[in-house]
Amino acid sequence: MVVGVAAAVLAGVVGAAAWTATQRVAAMDTTKQPTSGAWVGNSVTGALGVPLRETAFEFTVYRMACGAGTLPAASAGGRQCLATVGVRNLTPGEQTWHGQLQRAYLPGGNWVATDENATRVANLGRDVFAQPVAAGSRVLLPLVFTVHGDDPPKQLELRSGVFSAGVRVDVR
Questions:
Q1: Taking the CB of residue 167, how many other CB atoms lie within 10 A of it?
Q2: CA dist list (Å): 30 to 23, 25, 33, 38
Q3: Which residues contact 93 (CB under 8 A, 6 or more apart)?
């Protein structure tokens, strides 16, 4: 009798789950156009020295200079480009950000993420991505991008988070 009741309850749960899933699929509007994706906010593009806002941060890129591996952490054959960046937290809470989300776009369309080891060296051993940016505060720091080839980056893309539309700064 217990096995029969358990089987009936199990069949009822499976039936209810299948009915619910069918109703949800049937309720989807297939005539709607897709959204702009998972990005939060709109991407903004600007020039050096111009404050650009996105969802959590205001970024200002003051300078971009490339050399021939002048920092000790330069990778073999790579050339380091150092961007002086101001980051201001526009939110009422502290915000983290990540080196892998900060990108330098090269003329051919390829990009490189922040060289986190070289950035740590340029910041006198401090990992600028390990500490959140306090609410309402502003930091000014160098970010290092290690590029291969002769052409310097043409644009930086800076983001506060994975889903942020971010900002793009023309650096040439």
A1: 26
A2: 14, 10, 8, 19
A3: 135
Specify the pTM.
0.73
9-29 pLDDT, tens digit per residue, is: 877 777 776 766 666 555 554
Cβ–Cβ < 8 Å for 157, 39: no
116 and 137 belong to one structural domain: yes
Count of Cβ atoms closer than 10 Å to residue 135 Cβ: 12
pLDDT digits (tens, 9 = 90+) for 113-125: 999 999 999 999 9
| 23 and 59 housed in the same domain | no
- Cβ atoms of 162 and 154 closer than 8 Å: no
Residue 25, domain extent: 1-32
Considering the domain architecture, whether residues 101 and 138 belong to the same structural domain is answered as: yes
CA 52 to chain centre: 15
Q: Is 125 left (phi over 0), alpha (psi -120 to 50) or beta?
A: left
Report d(CA 104, CA 112) in Å as an integer.
5
CA distance 76 to 110: 19
6 and 50 fall within a common domain = no
Residue 8: per-residue pLDDT: 83
Query: Which has the minimum average pLDDT: 34-48, 50-64, 90-104, 137-151?
Result: 34-48
Q: Which amino acid is at 96?
A: T
Residue 73 has pLDDT above 60, yes or no: no
